[in-house]
């Protein structure tokens, strides 16, 4: 029987992943953790074990793992790209020392460790179109620096200590349950809320800026599928390129217009997030993930937009 600890369980990915894992493995076998309780997340906090612990508190975290006899850690607690540029010091501390603590616990307690990387692990010198799995990684954001360093650290723990580390490079994630916190791709979530609430959206990302994106159900499937993958088939581990779609702001606006004909979009570009977006790939090549563990996303832009608008309408009414 699996016993899974999810850090950052009240965040954008964690809140949905925890509930899905509880359905699969049983409520008591999935321990949600966060550094504090958050309003609006009662479902996650109350439907199974919940531990208040900061990923920087290594000893407390190790005790949680021992207490619940955890064998799998899904480590999601992290500072994202835009906030990371405002507070690089904090981004380095949480993203690196948090991961280090998790890997040390993984080594001592023999746990499988999943941690996400990101398209942010690439930079302006990376090939921008169909970015290969193995290529130049010289990011120019603190978030990106921590993601590349994290990938290498996870590889190190696998090679040196045999810790079963696995990861994916997530693109921008779009969901209707929990808002993302402080990323560059967040515009692609906000646009749906504003379309329904106000019939218009002001984009902080410039027209013509392509980035990879994915709908949350595919992201959750990716984590679960990779966790369950046969280790003998994994040539890569930290971390796999995965993508479901690549679009510019005009594309998502045009798709929304099919459902809300009066919808209008204009631009008030944020130079910091625009520069970050321009340093990231336009589209990833995810062949390795497809070949090594069967990655195959279900949602494209049209299908995602239909579902997002339907679910958000219910939520906002
Ligand atoms: C961000 O925009 O920072 C994140 C990411 C792509 O990792 N959504």
Automatic annotation (TrEMBL):
This is L-threonine 3-dehydrogenase. Belongs to the NAD(P)-dependent epimerase/dehydratase family. It comes from the Bacteria. InterPro entries: Epimerase_deHydtase, NAD(P)-bd_dom_sf, NAD(P)_epim/dehydratase. Residues 4-242 form the NAD-dependent epimerase/dehydratase domain. One of its GO terms (molecular function) is L-threonine 3-dehydrogenase activity. Signal peptide: none annotated. Pfam families: Epimerase. One of its GO terms (biological process) is L-threonine catabolic process. It comes from Anaerosalibacter massiliensis.
């Amino acid at each position: 029987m699996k016993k899974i600890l999810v850090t950052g369980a009240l965040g954008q990915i964690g809140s949905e992943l925890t509930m899905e894992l509880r359905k699969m493995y049983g409520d008591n076998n999935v321990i949600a953790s966060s550094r504090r309780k958050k309003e609006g997340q009662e479902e996650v906090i109350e439907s199974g074990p919940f531990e208040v612990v900061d990923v920087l508190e290594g000893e407390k975290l190790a005790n949680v793992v021992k207490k619940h006899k955890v064998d799998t850690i899904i480590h999601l607690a992290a500072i994202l790209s835009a906030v990371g540029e405002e507070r690089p010091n904090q981004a380095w501390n949480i993203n690196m020392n948090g991961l280090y603590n998790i890997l040390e616990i993984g080594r001592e307690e023999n746990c499988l460790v999943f941690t996400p990387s990101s398209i942010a692990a690439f930079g302006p010198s990376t090939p921008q179109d169909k970015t290969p799995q193995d290529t130049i990684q010289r990011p120019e954001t603190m978030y990106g620096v921590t993601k590349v360093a994290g990938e290498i650290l996870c590889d190190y723990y696998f090679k040196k200590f045999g810790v079963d580390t696995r990861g994916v490079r997530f693109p921008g994630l779009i969901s209707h349950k929990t808002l993302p916190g402080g990323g560059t791709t967040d515009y692609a979530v906000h646009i749906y809320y504003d379309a329904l609430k106000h019939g218009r959206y002001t984009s902080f990302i410039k027209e013509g800026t392509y980035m990879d994106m994915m709908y949350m159900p595919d992201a959750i499937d990716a984590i679960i599928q990779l966790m369950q993958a046969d280790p003998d088939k994994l040539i890569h581990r930290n971390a796999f390129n995965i993508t479901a779609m690549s679009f510019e702001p005009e594309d998502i606006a045009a798709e929304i217009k099919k459902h809300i004909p009066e919808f209008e979009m204009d631009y008030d570009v944020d130079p910091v997030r625009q520069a970050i977006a321009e340093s990231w790939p336009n589209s990833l090549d995810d062949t390795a993930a497809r070949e090594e563990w069967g990655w195959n996303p279900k949602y494209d832009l049209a299908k995602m937009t239909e579902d997002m608008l339907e679910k958000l309408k219910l939520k906002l009414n």
